Structure formats: C-alpha cells, structure tokens
Amino acid sequence: MADDATFTRRELLRQGAALAAASALPLGAPRTLGAAAPRREHRAGATHVAVVGAGCFGGWTALMLLRAGARVTLLDAWGAGNSRSSSGDESRVIRSMYNGDPLYTDLVTRAFSLWREEEGRWGRPVYRRTGALWMFEGDDDFARRSVPVMRERGIAVDELTPAEAARRFPQIAFEGVRSVFHEPEGGYLLARESCERVRESVVAGGGEYRQLRVSPGAPASGRMPALTLDDGTALDADMYVFACGPWLGSLFPDVVGNGIIATRQDVLYFGPPAGEHRYDEGSFPVWVNVGSRRMYGIPGNERRGFKVADDSYGAEIDPSTLERTASPEAIRVARTTLRKRFPGLARAPLTETRVCQYEYSPEGDFLVDRHPECDNAWLIGGGSGHGFKMGPALGEYAARVVLEGKATDPKFSYANFAARRAALRPAGRRKAHS
Question: What pTM was estimated for this model as a whole?
C-alpha cells in the first residue's frame, strides 16, 4: 500500500474534494477524475477503450473513462439495466454500514457524493434519502464494528433502543429485536433508470453504444485481440474492460470460472391498502432485519409496492436462461417477515415479483484488475449483492486503474481473487460485506 504505483485509500478520499469542485459544471464540460487525472479533450488519437457490459459497474466505468479523455465504446447484449442483469429491477439499497471495513466505507462515502453530483446533471433524483434502519435480533457485531469507522468519516449513525425505535416507527413490531441502528443518509437508488441514464450520458458525452453480444478472443503474445460481435463484425480497441456481471465466469472459464457465480434472488412487492401512506418513502425507511435470515426491504415508491427480499444465498443459476418466476418458498418467507415485523401489511396482496441475481465472488470482494494474461484487458466484477450503490465510485476507481496503470488495492486484485477461488469449498463462500 505504500508503493506509489498503488491506488491508495487516501487517493480515493482526495478524489472527493477534487470532483466536488467540478460538480456545478454541465454534462460534457471539461471535468477532472480525481486530482491526478485531468480530463483530456476527446480528440483523434485518444486511447480507445471498449467496455463490455452496460450494467452498474460497466456503465459507470465507461462514463468515467470518457470524462477522463478516452474514446469509449460501450457494449451490452441486452441493454442497460435489462431484466437478466444484476443491475435490473426498480431499486437498490444505499447505506454506509460495512462491517468496519475502511476500504468499502471510503468507497461508499465517495459514491454518495457522486450520486448527488450526477443527479444535478440529470435533473432527476435517483438517490432517495429515506434513512436506513438496521434491526438485530441477536449478534450485532456487524454494526458495532461499523459505527466507529463511520463516525471517523463523519457519517451519521444513531443507536436506538427498541422502545425508541418503536416510537419513531410505529408501523414496525420490534418484538425480539435486541438492538437498532439508524443511518439518516441511507436510502435507495432507482436502479434500472440510473443504468439507462448513465448509458445516455455516455452517448451524450461522445461515446458510442452498441447493443450486441461480444466474444473475446484468446490472448496472444500477452494481448487481447479484437472482439468478435454477433453481427459478424470485429471491434479492435486499444484496451478492453470486461464488466459482465454474472457472465464474467462463462466468458473467461479458465481465468474466472466458478470464482464468480450467479445466484437466484427472489424480490417481492406487496400492495398496502388504498390511501395508506405509512409504508411509503416519505414515512418509512429502507430496512434490514438480521435474524435467522437477513431480510431487507424498500418502502413503496414510484407507484410500486413495499419491497421485501431475502439477502441469503440463492441457488446457482444460468442468468441467460433462467425462468424468472418467484418461488412459493420465497413468498412464504416474505409473508412470515410481514406478519412478524410489519403486521399492518400481513394481508397485503402480492402485486409484483422479480427474480434477480447476485454474482458472488469468493469473499464478496470486488475484482478490479488486469487480466492475468493480457496487458490490455481488465476484469471488473464480483458485485456480490452489494455493488450497485458503489457504481460511480467504482467506475471512477476503475477508470484510473485502466488509464494510469496504477496497481489496484490488494483486496480487488486478481491475485487475491485467484487465491480465494483456489480455496473454495462447496459451501465456502461468505458474504462478508453486504
């Protein structure tokens, strides 16, 4: 970490001050990507980077590369925020509690700033500040480790007794809850919409977007050759970034393989009674209940119902062919949670369902590093169910790694990923961060 060629956590924080000063500029105006990366005007001869995957990681990486002066081509098989992607569905939680991990806490702190900045460009609020409420039925070490790190960074977090929480949120039954923590700045993000707005920003900023399936060629002499596209053409770029979510392992079976797997995650929406606004975003927080399972949800918003989901590992799936119909077991578990914690919604009708996925890395860490056999290709993935909120900060980070050639943080390195992958057992994955 002391090596000058490494992207340090201190640099991540310095980026916040640098980009905050540029936040009033309109879309497309010259900007900076951190203190060490002045924006170059797009011109003939600029480095051409092809980014494969227009989800949260790929889209934001493409946009930050473009703003740093690169020529960018963004590609996706089914489109930004599509229903097969890990960035689809309506909403995602954003919060700062990260098990006391300084790297992820700094990254999400940066992400909060960048989401707000981008809202100013778009003229549309995609980050909704509802607060985030954590309810622990037993072990609350996750929160106890997180709070000191959060407070060191000026992130507000309050510990409430269950009785205090019940007075503030009478819609919730706190029986069996041992401890409660509230993050005032937590909330949710409009997922599908923000992916599309990032894609639009890439195009508006002079980048190219193509909706085509991509096949990478076999590395030759330490280089990635031109990509083969499913329209029969080839795309030859100077550099390639693969941010393919749950497809990263199938695109690179030897290098990634089962180190990143897609798991089934059922998401359910329940409809409050007509005229009942106590469970809407103006009155209710994003919530997480940690007990025998870790359940979470998002209040009613955008004319959708009350979202309930299980954060536990689902079954491994093929994201391309999965029939996305919610399972009876997922519905049963969600209704049990409603009866237990939200009795006013115990009989609420199920109005919508989704079957999404996480793409898990061995320890839940992101992978942001050069392909081990190619000097001109990078692998970005392992969102592991907690990556969406990080999108703009992770894209900013990745753009600097790619264009400046800095070594990534050891946690995000391919060496760490490969070592963890080699140590995997059938039940060896841990969800350490989300």
Answer: 0.90
